[in-house]
Amino acid sequence: MDFSTKRMNLFIVLVSSLLMLLVSNLPFKANRYGDMNFHTESKNLALFIKGKVDFDKVVITKAPGPILFYTPAYLLAPDDATDEQLWLLAVVFLSIITTISLLLIFRIGCVFFSKEVGFLAVLLFFIFPIHCYYSLGILAEIPAFFSLTLGLYGWVLAYGEPHKKRGWLVLNFGIWLLIMNRPNAMLLLGIIFVVILYSYYNNKSFFKNYGRKLVFTFLVVTSFSIGGLQLAKLTTIGKSGENQESLFYFVAHQGRFQFREEPLDLRFWDNTNRADSKDYQNWVKSRQDLSKEITQTNRSFNAVYKEFLVKDIVSHPFWTTRQFFIKCLYGNLNIISKVPPNQFVLGPFKGIIGYWSFLLILNSINLIILAGVALFLIHEKSLIKYWIFWGITVSLLVFHGFTYMEPRYVFPSKVALYIMSASGLYRIHFIKKIIDKISVIMFPTYKLLK
To answer: Which of 207, 146, 186 is nearest to 392 (CA)?
Structure first.
């Protein structure tokens, strides 16, 4: 790159800090401690490392990745730190991680496209700072967001210099860390396998330079992912009834009733928002029926739920198909579920009308971003080069389209989507003209600096 990035780096750090302050004062926020699992388990692991609790307190009931992120931050806290003090440490850590991610996103856009596209990708995040929202909760979203950013950056390095190990190591580590944070991203390994087969038969040049090394990536990441998840399972055996497998069946069962008979009900899935929902009530009843079956037959939770899922999918192909497409659409919408519409207040947006008007603006921005992605996919002739960009989106949509969907579950893919969108939107003349003018100021060349 023959231009200075100092101004861009400073711009990213300053705007990110300001947006964090702004979003932290909004009337709606991410749950501070999520569902408490990551927070409690990271706290106990940190105390165990300090020698303050026994190993029997160390459990990893869900994805192990977030524990790797939050435990180091919690180690900095005093032994008697309150939950709020730990939360503050986590938020500071997450803010730093998101800022680093944006710095990398800019560089990914620069190397694969241009400095203007990299700049526009960062602007899209600033226009719609959903990453700041998730940085205020002890969740898996930001760790997964950072992990995919690492994976994309690794692929950029590997693509430019396939003979060097650095890029491949970063790529492998990023994908592995993504799966540790979001095991639902494991379908990305299937995308890698398809890319390898396709390049072997239809793109010999790509296979020679990259496909062979992607075989190594597939084998290494698969092995380490299975090993990491099994290690987390072994750590928890005998200490908790929760584990990854039972969690999968529980969530998949929940998803069988999402948008089942109420395809237009977008309310959040809990008894506070949907107590009167037919789908929600049927889900509760099904859980009760399955619990009785477990007791009466003395079969395991996993066996009973697995049998139900198979039978239900086979018995209702129309519902299954309709649910899949609605879930994919729902995953790309932004719904504020923490505040009832009639109690919504945000500046000039008040009440039910203000609530829906604000959501309309939010989702209009989202539609523009998706339109940019569509332009990119239509005009880009070498899509295999961008396999990880579209692959992660396909992986998450397919997985949650057939299980249970929340917009936050596909949030990590925003890294790839926004970069592709920036490339597509930059093709539009008036957007290109604006970004080009700003770029003259933002990126002084080294020649001019001298």
So the answer is: 186
Spatial separation of the C-alpha atoms in residues 150 and 337, rounded to whole Å: 31
- For residues 59 and 240, the answer to whether their CB atoms sit within 8 Å is yes
User: Of the candidates 78, 90, 85, 86, which has an alpha carbon nearest to the alpha carbon of residue 52?
Assistant: 78
What is the DSSP-derived secondary structure letter of residue 349? E
Spatial separation of the C-alpha atoms in residues 40 and 83, rounded to whole Å: 9
Contact call for residues 171 and 158 (beta carbons, < 8 A): yes
Q: Determine the angle formed by the axes of helices 187-202 and 165-181, rounding to 10 degrees.
A: 140
Predicted local confidence at residue 271, as pLDDT: 83
pLDDT digits (tens, 9 = 90+) for 240-256: 767 778 888 999 999 99
CA 261 remoteness from chain centre: 28
Residue 267 token pair: 């309310």
For CA atoms 26, 405, 59, 300, the dihedral sign is positive
Give Dmax over CA atoms of the chain in angstroms: 81
In single-letter form, the type of residue at position 436 comes to D
The 10s digit of each residue's pLDDT in 74-122 is 999 998 899 999 999 999 999 999 999 999 999 999 999 999 999 999 9
Residue 435, classified by CB atoms within 10 Å of its CB into exposed (0-12), middle (13-18) or buried (19+), is buried
pLDDT of 235: 86
Distance CA(378)–CA(336), nearest Å, equals 32
CA–chain centroid gap for 379, Å, is 26
Token look-up 């003209």 returns 433
Query: For strand 345-346 and strand 349-350, is the pairing parallel, antiparallel, or unpaired?
Result: antiparallel
Contact 244, 233 (CB under 8 A): yes
Burial class (CB in 10 A: 0-12, 13-18, 19+), 155: buried
- Radius of gyration of the chain from its Cα atoms, rounded to whole angstroms: 23
Residue 369, amino acid: I
* Residue where the block lists tokens 């569509």: 374
- Whether pLDDT at 450 is above 60: no
> What is the value of pTM for the model shown?
0.91
**Interatomic CA distance for residues 366 and 362, integer angstroms:** 6
DSSP string of 391-424, one letter each residue: HHHHHHHHHHHHS---GGGGGGGHHHHHHHHHHH
The string over 267-288, giving b where at least 16 C-beta atoms fall within 10 Å of a residue's C-beta and e elsewhere, is bebeeebbeebebbeebeebee
**Residue 299: partners with Cβ closer than 8 Å, 6 or more residues away:** 293
* Residues 120, 32: Cα–Cα separation, whole Å: 30
